[in-house]
């Protein structure tokens, strides 16, 4: 069986080109989507993620603000910054980069963001709108998965979908979006009985459980669409060889960097069994940042009363 690639890089570039065109039109009317990103502390990966978001804003003609607070900043200082941004008409999207320092109440911080500017889609107001099927800002990774499926011409209506992982960030909202597209959805997790058998029922399998290469051929129905959300850093040479093979370019990458990335799906066992799959990297990851830009534009449209489809 031929296994086709769900190319997140290509689809995200397509979405960003559409958003850049929209941004150029709005700019002539004096409107530029504005995204503010708040980062507390010196978490290295978080700095990389924030820099990537700021760079993408510049590429699309958005205005971006990067607000850095020291690791010992108190929650009141962070909440004060959020309150200021809530009232700033030039800011349409507010994102607090996670994780926050230990001891800081993440839920309290996220709930302080104006739901109209909650481009992560984590505020209870937007979660409620998602559950009720009402328009609102949707978490970026689940939204990206839906865009990837639709733009690849994959039918969702009437199909069996299994979401492996029940996080509030990916698993639950992905299940809700698939349900709204008229799939029959099963949401499962580490305590689901006979997990491989449940996953084998899926025409569309979304793996978001955070366990390296856990999903093997035994989990995959022949011809299924497999979406791998996992991003795990592999730092053991023997494990790299076991998953990718001795002659794989991944082994060479490991030799250069000391690590390589792998998802929640076994990279060799998905080939020849799935009908479609998302690579790691290059699958879901690029879609997440594209949908962050989408949410920022959507928030700007709603705040300024512009049409949004």
Structure characterization notes:
With 309 residues, this protein is an alpha/beta fold. The mean pLDDT is 95. It contains eleven helices and eleven strands. The two termini are 37 Å apart. It folds into two domains: 31-114, Leucine Dehydrogenase, chain A, domain 1 (Rossmann fold); 140-287, 3-Layer(aba) Sandwich (Rossmann fold), CATH 3.40.50. The strands form three sheets. The chain has a six-stranded parallel β-sheet. Strands 3-2-4 form a three-stranded parallel β-sheet, with helices on both faces. The protein has a two-stranded antiparallel sheet with strand order 9-10.
What layout of secondary structure does this protein have?
Blueprint: E1 4-5, H1 8-27, E2 34-40, H2 44-60, E3 63-69, H3 75-86, E4 93-96, H4 106-111, H5 124-132, H6 140-151, E5 160-164, H7 171-180, E6 184-188, H8 195-199, E7 204-207, E8 225-228, E9 232-234, H9 237-244, H10 249-257, E10 260-262, E11 276-277, H11 284-304
Parallel strand pairs: 1-11, 2-3, 2-4, 5-6, 5-7, 7-8, 8-11
Antiparallel strand pairs: 9-10
Helix pairs in contact: 1-11, 6-7, 6-11, 9-10
Summarize the structure.
The protein is an alpha/beta fold and 309 residues long. It has helices at residues 8-27, 44-60, 75-86, 106-111, 124-132, 140-151, 171-180, 195-199, 237-244, 249-257, 284-304, and strands at residues 4-5, 34-40, 63-69, 93-96, 160-164, 184-188, 204-207, 225-228, 232-234, 260-262, 276-277.
In N-to-C order, the SSE pattern is: EHEHEHEHHHEHEHEEEHHEEH
Instruction: Report the CATH architecture of the largest domain.
Output: 3-Layer(aba) Sandwich
Question: CATH first level of the largest domain: which class?
Answer: Alpha Beta
Q: Averaged pLDDT, please?
A: 95
Radius of gyration: 20 Å
What overall form do the CA principal axes indicate?
A: globular
Content of β-strand:
5-15%
Structural class: alpha/beta
CATH topology heading of the largest domain: Rossmann fold
Helical fraction equals 40-55%
| Whole-number total of structural domains | 2
- What multimeric state do the chains show? single chain
List segments where confidence is low: pLDDT < 50 over at least 5 consecutive residues: none
Count of DSSP-assigned helices: 11
Number of separate strands: 11
Question: Largest sheet at a glance?
Answer: 6 strands, parallel
Task: Please give the order of strands in the largest beta sheet.
Answer: 1-11-8-7-5-6
CATH superfamily of the largest domain: NAD(P)-binding Rossmann-like Domain
Distance between the termini: 37 Å
